[in-house]
Amino acid sequence: MRAFLPAYDLEAPETLDAALRLLSGGDGGWKPFAGGTDLMVLLESGKLAPGRYVSLWDIEELRGITVSEDGVAIGALTTYSDVLAHPVLRADFPLVVRAAAETGGVATQNRGTLGGNIANASPAADTPPALLVYDAELDIVSVRGTRRVPYDGFHKGYKVMDLAPDEIIRRIRLPFARRGWRQAYRKVGTRRAQAISKVCFAAAADVRDGTLHDARIAFGSVAPTVVRCHVTEHALRGRRIDPGIAAVARQALTADIAPIDDVRSTARYRMRVAGNLLVDFLLNDDNSQRPTPNSQS
Amino acid sequence: MKWTPGDRSNIEDQRGRSGLRMGAPLGIGGLLIVLLLSWFTGVDFLSLLSGGGAGSAPPSATVGTSGVATSPEEERLVDFVDAVMDDTQATWERLLGGRYQKTRAVLFRDGIQSACGFAESASGPFYCPADHKVYLDLGFFDELRNRFGASGEFAQGYVLAHEVGHHVQALTGTDDQVRRLQATRRQVRERRQVGPRRTARARTGGRRLRPATGRARGLPGRLSRRVPARVPSGVRSPVSGRTLGWPRAPRAYRRSPIARLRATRYGEAGLFHPWGKIGRMPAIGRSIPRKEGRAKVTGQARYVDDLVLPGMLHGATVRSSVVRGTIRDIRFAPGLPWDQFTIVTAADIPGRNVVALITDDQPYLASDRVNHAEEPVVLLAHPDPVMLEEGRRGVTIEIDPLPAVSSIDESLARREIIWGTDNIFKSYSVASGDVESALAAADVVVAGEYETGSQEQLYIEPNGMLAVARPEDGVSVWGSMQCPYYVHRALAGLFDLPSERIRVVQMETGGGFGGKEEYPSIIAGHAALLAWKSGRPVKLVYDRAEDMVATTKRHPSRTRHRTGVTRDGRLVAMDIDFVIDGGAYCTLSPVVLSRGTIHAPGPYFCPNTRIRGVAVATNVPPHGAFRGFGAPQSLFALERHMDRVAEAAGLAPDEFRRRNFIQTGQTSAVGQVMREPIDMNAILARALKESDYHAKKVAWAASNATSTIKKGIGFAAFMHGAGFTGSGEDHLASVVVVEATREGRVRVLAANTEIGQGTNTIFSQIAADALGISPDAIDVAQPDTASVPDSGPTVASRTCMVVGKLVETAAAGVAASLTGAGLLQPGYAPADFATACATYVDRFGALRASAQYQATPGMKWDDDRYVGDAYGSYAWAVYVAEVSVDTITYEVHVDDFVAVQEVGKVINPVLATGQIEGGVAQGIGWALYEQVSWRDGRMQNAQMTNYIMPTSMDLPPIRVLFEEVPYARGPAGAKGIGELPMDGAAPAIANAVAHATGVNVTAVPITPERLMVLMEEVTVG
Asked: How many CB atoms neighbour CB B240 within 10 A?
């Protein structure tokens, strides 16, 4: 343990009200966290900024998955293990389930949450690309009230979010909008398990009669934030699925993503593989059936 | 099924006068039967093994019809045995007609002399083919009932029918292969006993033993002179015509599911059939449980970080942040309670500020100059580890930077001299024949350049030491290490103390892989310096990040080959240029280079060979020992290159190698005449067969054309020399002591450490067989320089072969003392041993024997010219890798792996298999995943999330198969095994990737990023 523990304060309120009051309090400076799977790694290595932290883990109001006619509402503290076990998510949101299965090991899946995965704002997070494909919305809450925002656009830059210091994510809403679409998710990590992604791909396409009528395409680890590829979606909409689509897709993608070199991979690899994954998705209908190596389903 | 008592005509009653024993220990024969029972009945009797069960009350003794003490229950059992035998034999008579001859069940108690030798109850029921009888102690049925819960008559009947089955095998001749197997084992034993050369001197009470003649040297005769050994139809040596004695399991055995499992998992040397274990069963060759396994699993094992002493301080190391430079100042941040800290710098060192190893170039603490990032400069100690961290952050070392060297090429360019006069730690030049003329005359010449990366050992337990040091008492350290006497020597110099004032104790150690060979000397010294200055115990344990950034790793390498072959694919010239990056200080680089250089030409014969080996200096933390020790680097280059040479010569990779494998009697590149038997062709054939190599090549040629997943298969052929190179073992002159207590417990005293590889267990097995007692009666002393002799370091695949032989010899010395004193007769039972020990100790005092390594007669090594007998023995191997390459992501996955090796006698099949599996897994990591990412001379991925070692999901099934050709100078014929498996995975995988993709892979790790570049070049070009 390299952290100097006396430099940290911790509160663990049991109600949403108490947490929101703490965050809005005059003395300020409290930072919320959920499962702590990323935070604990930083603490151990001495890289967590000293300060005041609020654990949301004990707040039951942030748990639970509600199914309605239009979609599901997923409490922000829903863990990856909860996701993996939920029948409606498994049936209608397979990409989120795949993402949950590919995140960390069992211990991380028991502790890590969807809300935390979003608010940690890592560009390499595994579930956000899937959430983008499903047109997710976020319920955001503070003492000032609740507001609902589309998830697309929530991340404004590297670790910059549409989330005030006194706000937390309350739930994630997913509409039943992708029924009948071809869907694919692929995490390209540094190994088959316990890996951080180098390229993370999620996509859905409405393909009928050999034509792509609509699509959602999202990537992780190829830009300062997870990105939804609006330019590429636009370029592909209405096109015939034929070999010629590959060049269009690759070209358009360069406008949506901006990969870099880092300790895990290279910009060149990320750009090439992102294109490969997209082209493979468009041209090979069977790729969505490719088994996920560490899927627990 | 009902049965009625018969006339007992199927019984031969040999029950003695002793009562029916309850709960006798169950030998492997019995265990095997229980295993088979479980298999047939679906009841897991083995899971009940540990239960013990409540034994039923002993039956009241009466005198039965046979005139021995017995009981109505026992007599009913006799009738039952008779009835089952009768029914079984009637069935076989119906099936076989006139070919069936009746057998009888011989009932005995405790022990019996059969035509197959002396047997005891613990052997379990058995069939003796020499007199065609089934042998059974009725106590075995109690064992089945009480310990395994197999109480029904079915279980009992099954046991008898099983043994009658062997009788049928004997009658029908299907036991031939079984016998062949047994004969091979006997050959091994007899060769071990007559030992063509005496290898080590056993001393008993100061007397030197007589040289061995045709008899076992001090060994009881129980193992020899039974059924005459039959010559197996094995492989014959091409030179002597001598049969090499490959143990091959009978075909039927190999086909059964259990046998297949066993053959796959444990090699075919694992378990043998009951009738082979007459008398006491040998411990060698059995997978007895790991000695310290229970303590490790239950958390009782004590590692250095478990130690807490009163008044103990925690220590920390402050390191340079600059790659190379001059220390200008050391500043301590204001506001911290520095008076609470113990602070040590180079000025506090009482002796020499040098880590004693090969060259005196590395300081314990840098005083004016730093030569790599993370070099230790200041040591701190404090009672509170949290405060200590704050202190570490509060020290600033101001350094004026100097130009640094970061690669092999920069070092060789010598624009900056950072070490000595030329940046070169060591170079070798080895030559035979005339390479230039041979290259000029060759039909085909192929050149290639290959690179390998660094690799972190990643033992589970990070490095750590606890020290107590006071001028009046001397220095004592406890910690995680491979080589207590290396630490001992280093501390003596650091403190300028006589060796008897230094004590080094190895705690339980969570893995080493070479990473705890030299670096523990530094941590021990640092902890001891803090203890010396503070007057209090100091514990200094690294966390993972510090262990990764600061301690030694595998040497990166670059190898250039120029190879000439004739039109028909024979090697005529090999020109090899091998360079390794040693880092900032010399450490072990010269010996790593030596092993890499000697292994560079691989298992081939080539009349004209030239090898230049160079170890250069760069400004990174020193590279050091890591499993394989230079050989994986040069063998990667060689085996990848050989595939390319084969292609250029128009030959398949296997056919090219068959034409060039070195043969017994040929001379290696360093001038060693290969006297020990070699049969690489047999190993290659088995590996290709097990992996279905040829069929897969054909099938994938078709399927790869249309799939985004490209399949490939490749192999590597290689060898690894065991023990120190050349005359190294002669200089070490290792000593082992074996002593026995009055109670008959035996203690092995050696400095070789258990680091997870099984030292404790195999030493126990070796000593047990030399003494004719159970391995449970053997203790292996904790390595402590105050009580164990210097048996050398735990490195170089030498522990089993070299030190194990000394254990065997010293143990035999103890037995010889007892037989010499007339207290034991050949053929003694284990119980007699304890009695004899008690008498001996009462009469003569301590019962101890020691053995010291002696140079092998006829082995010659010239250190100056670098020619001669480089290693006493080599392990030989062929590894086959099957891979998938995903052309969407350029990821490589190993789908299947076959590892066939000849390692001499396998002492403990489960441990040996574990060594191979672990080495292969480490090799796969090195080949595909593990990459030390340097930035400004520092490792930037010093955490397990970014330093990518493979998980179980990234590993294939690893199918481990052993061939056993006994080596006379190893215990029971064993050779070295620990490093071998590190050598083969990377080149086999690289060859498989090349096969799958058609690109020329020349460097490891084959990361997706690298492979993408190679594949794009092919597409574009």
From this structure: 12
Among residues 7-36 of chain A, which lie with CB inside 8 Å of chain B?
none
Report d(CA B582, CA B622) in Å as an integer: 6
For A68, residues 6+ apart whose C-beta sits below 8 A from its C-beta are none
Helix (H), strand (E) at residue A274:
helix A267-283
What domains lie within chain B, and their CATH numbers? 11-182 (no CATH), 280-298+728-854 (3.30.365.10), 311-402+463-541 (3.90.1170.50), 557-725+863-1020 (3.30.365.10)
A74 with A136: CB under 8 angstroms? no
DSSP calls for B25-68:
PP-HHHHHHHHHHHHHH---GGGGGGG--PPPPPPPPEE-TTSS
Pick among B384, B885, B941, B1009 to test the A interface (most A CBs inside 10 A): B1009
What does CATH list as the number for A62-175?
3.30.465.10
| pLDDT tens-digit readout, B4-37 | 778 888 888 888 633 333 333 334 444 444 444 4
| Whole-prediction pTM | 0.81
Q: Exposed (0-12), middle (13-18) or buried (19+): which is A286, by Cβ within 10 Å? A: exposed
Q: What is the pLDDT of residues B593-619, one digit of tens each?
A: 999 999 999 999 999 999 999 999 999
CA distances from B924 to B551, B557, B988, B1005 (A): 22, 17, 10, 9
Q: Can you list the positions of beta strands (E) in B700-838?
A: 709-722, 735-740, 746-749, 778-780
Identify which of A166, A207, A185 has the alpha carbon closest to the alpha carbon of residue A292: A185
Q: Look at chain B and count its residues.
A: 1021
Token pair recorded at residue B842: 């009462």
A269 and B890 in contact by Cβ < 8 A? Answer: yes
pLDDT digits (tens, 9 = 90+) for B629-677: 999 999 999 999 999 999 999 999 999 999 999 999 999 999 999 999 9
Question: For A193, which of B889, B951, B1009 is closest by C-beta distance?
Answer: B951
With residue B579 as reference, give the H or E element that holds it.
Answer: strand B571-581
Pick from B453, B295, B130, B444: which is nearest to B780 by CA?
B295
Q: What is the largest CA-CA distance in chain A?
A: 65
Torsion, CA B87, CA B90, CA B91, CA B93, rounded to 10:
160
DSSP notation for B825-843: -TT--HHHHHHHHHHHHHH
B609, two tokens: 């060979």
Residue B386, chain A, CB below 8 Å: the answer is: yes
Provide the CATH topology of domain A182-287. Answer: Enolase-like; domain 1 (3.30.390)
Pairing outcome for strands B958-963 and B892-902: parallel
Quickly state the pLDDT bin for B1018 (edges 50, 70, 90).
confident
8 Å CB contact between B895 and B914? no
- Start-to-end CA span in chain B (Å): 79
Directed axis angle between helix B980-997 and helix B1008-1020, to 10°? Answer: 30
ipTM over 0.90: yes
- Evaluate whether B614 touches B593 at the Cβ level (below 8 Å): yes
Domain boundaries, chain A: 62-175, 182-287
Q: What is the CA radius of gyration of chain A?
A: 19
Cβ contact, residue pair A192, B893, below 8 Å: yes
Q: Is B935 helix (H, G, I), strand (E, B) or coil?
A: strand
> Distance between CA atoms of B201 and B810, rounded to whole angstroms?
9
Residue of B nearest to A279 (CA): B888
Contact A96/A89 with Cβ under 8 angstroms?
Answer: yes
B566-578 pLDDT, tens digit per residue, is 999 999 999 999 9
Taking 3-state DSSP, the helix, strand and coil percentages for chain B, each rounded to the nearest 5, stand at: 35, 20, 40
